[in-house]
Each structure stands twice: as C-alpha cells, then as structure tokens.
Amino acid sequence: METQYYTLIEKQDFYEIIENKYGELAIFIDAREGLPQNPVLEFDGKKTALLKRDGRLAVKLDNIDADTKEPLAEAEFVMIAELNGKTVERVYGVPVENVEEIVFEGRQTRADELVKAKTREELLASFGAVRSWTNGSEK
Q1: C-alpha–C-alpha distance, residues 19 and 129, integer Å
Q2: DSSP code at position 2
C-alpha cells in the first residue's frame, strides 16, 4: 500500500458512531471543506481511528467507546456523515482498515464549518439507527 502524507490532521473532539439494525455503522463528524477523495478509515482496535479524507487532510477520532471497538473492527465499510451543526453536509462510504498502530503525520488543527443540506435527524431516520455511542474527549 502506498504511503500518504497529510499536511493537516484535525482532531475531532466530539463525534457519534451509530449502528443500525443490520449492524452497519455510521460516524457523524463535523463538515470539512471540499470533497473527500479516496477516503479510508484506519482503526487501531483500541481507542483511535484516523479518517484519511484525502491526500491533504486526515481526521483523528480519539477515545472510541469500548462498546464500539468490536463492531468497528469487524466492519468492512462505514458511512461517514459530515455535519454542519445539525445539518448533513455530505455522506459517503469508506473502507475500514485495521492497523496495529496509527501513524500521524502533519500538524494538528481544526476546519471551518460549511453550508446546510438535510438534518441529522432525517439522516438517522433513513439510516435506521438502533444504537448510538457518543465518543471523543473524556469528561
């Protein structure tokens, strides 16, 4: 597999991982500028995942809930929903790669939020969510 270098790594402080009745997972994060290109989600099987959104930007997901580890490790694909507040900016599928260690390259920052589409509640209803885990910074 080709090594990719990222100029920006953004830490996503609060995010949700949702499971529907079919065992499919969706991850709700803040919207980022621009469209993803060949995105992939790396998961270390512990508490951290890295959404490699494109060749420039990666999104770090820290403190993944313990109950989420197994479903995420077993998933081949997850749905990523990028939100601007409660409005869905974009939705796309990404393959999940289980890795032994997440390697962070680049500097850590945060992105601006963008424009509206449909609401988060509408997306949850159409996804058919049956379970939800709130993840991120520990309180």
Answers
A1: 6
A2: -
- The CA-atom distances, in angstroms, between 36 and each of 19, 55, 66, 109, 114 are 22, 9, 28, 18, 14
pLDDT in tens, 74-87: 999 999 999 988 89
Residue 53: C-alpha distances to residues 67, 119, 124 (Å): 25, 22, 22
Q: Give, as one character, the DSSP assignment of residue 4.
A: -
Residues written for the chain:
139
Nearest to 75 by CA among 57, 52, 54, 98: 98
**Predicted confidence (pLDDT) per residue in 10-61, tens digit:** 677 789 999 999 999 999 999 988 899 999 999 999 999 989 888 778 888 8
Tokens found for residue 85 = 């507040």
Q: What pLDDT score does 49 carry?
A: 93
Q: Which pTM value belongs to this model?
A: 0.73
CA nearest to 32, candidates 3, 52, 4: 52
SS3 label, residue 19: strand
